[in-house]
Specification:
Elements (H helix, E strand, L loop, with lengths): L4 E5 L4 H12 L3 E6 L4 H10 L7 E5 L5 H15 L4 E4 L14 H29 L2 E6 L2 H5 L5 H21 L4 E8 L5 H4 L3 H9 L9 H12 L10 E4 L8
Parallel strand pairs: 1-2, 1-4, 2-3, 4-5, 5-6, 6-7
Helix pairs in contact: 1-9, 3-4, 4-6
The chain binds acetoacetyl-coenzyme A.
Acetoacetyl-coenzyme A binds next to helix 5 and helix 7.
Amino acid sequence: MKQRIAVVSGGIGGLGTEICRHLAVAGHRVIAADLGVRTERIAAFRNEVADLGDAVTFEALDIGDFDACAGLIRQIEAEHGGVDVLVNAAGITRDTTLRKMSQEQWHSVLTVNLDGVFNLCRNAIEGMCARGFGRIVNISSVNGQTGQFGQTNYAAAKAGMHGFTMALAREVARKGVTVNSVSPGYCETAMVMQIAPEIREQIIADVPVGRLGKPSEIARVVTFLVAPDSSFITGANIPVNGGYFMDF
Ligand code: CAA
């Protein structure tokens, strides 16, 4: 069977790294796309995936830049024949109450977390439809479902991601392309470690499972959704949050 090509935005991040690993172990050729400026983190990432050989490679990309996204997708199409799996895992926080939020804090979160999804999907979708196969997974957040104090920007972007997911899922459902969201709760990542310890402890106390999630517990769900035989799941949002938010 043809080896499928997966692109993971935010691929060197807390969740992204683990998603790259799981997809590679599941047999994909994975391209981790992330900002090229964090040289120490890129070096650490290369070490973390070294055991996977050339199944995981890194490409520098600013997902806020539409033309750069177009260029990367074109390059992958030329080198590998196309993108089969796209995981939008790039995300940033600029937490502060709306009363203090600057336009820069608003725009930077919306640009990375939401424009980034448009920029990559818009460039990858045509090829997926033409080839009759595609899997898109958008990494949203429990905080897009519930809102969170100090996150009007982030919650708006993450809720927006799922609206995007549902709309695109309808558009491409007959082309062999599925589009789903995964909404992680609080996980063991650098992003969550930025929260003040007393606030983080309170959040963990409110998680029924009683702990933070592990990135591998998110990656497992992504790998499930991108499998060829997950073909009847589309437009869904899969919560993976230790019971922090339960919905019907
Ligand atoms: N709930 C209720 N009240 C709160 C509060 C909270 N969580 N946090 C602060 N307040 C109160 C303060 O006590 C203060 O009250 P007074 O005005 O009476 O003194 C008031 O709200 C304003 O507080 P600050 O001036 O400290 O607010 P701030 O603008 O500096 O922002 C904050 C506070 C840093 C955003 C803080 O609320 C916070 O860390 N919130 C949690 C953010 C969070 O969970 N981020 C998740 C990041 S990880 C992630 O996003 C991954 C994922 O997908 C799950």
